Amino acid sequence: MSETPREAADASAPSDPTGSASPAERVARIDELMSHVWMVRTFLKHCDEVEDDEELQSVVRDLYDVLLAVGPATAEGDVTAYLKMLKKKRKRLMRAAALFAEIQPEVSGHTNFAMAARSLTIASNEIDQLVS
């Protein structure tokens, strides 16, 4: 019996994403994951459903706040400041991801929304591990 793509991805995922990675390597991976956060935020910001949903609006605001907070450290290439700021904003990111995953079925059952919730959950969970 062959494994599904999800099982293959789970099997190849490192059990300890921080492993022996240097802070610069961790920030590089986090920055890749932040591109997923950005795309989910942009998708939600421009969807019609956000206009009348205060919880969805709060998800969009919280994601933007996290992204904006690490911007200066990203621009300066300051790994220490990046990780320090992200540690401060980690709870906000995790709370936004959890809220979106919770309300997504109520907001829309469309595949785009389901995939956005999945993408945000995966990215935020790995970011959380890398920041720890």
TrEMBL record:
Which intervals of the chain are annotated as region Disordered? Answer: 1-25
**Protein name according to UniProt:** Uncharacterized protein
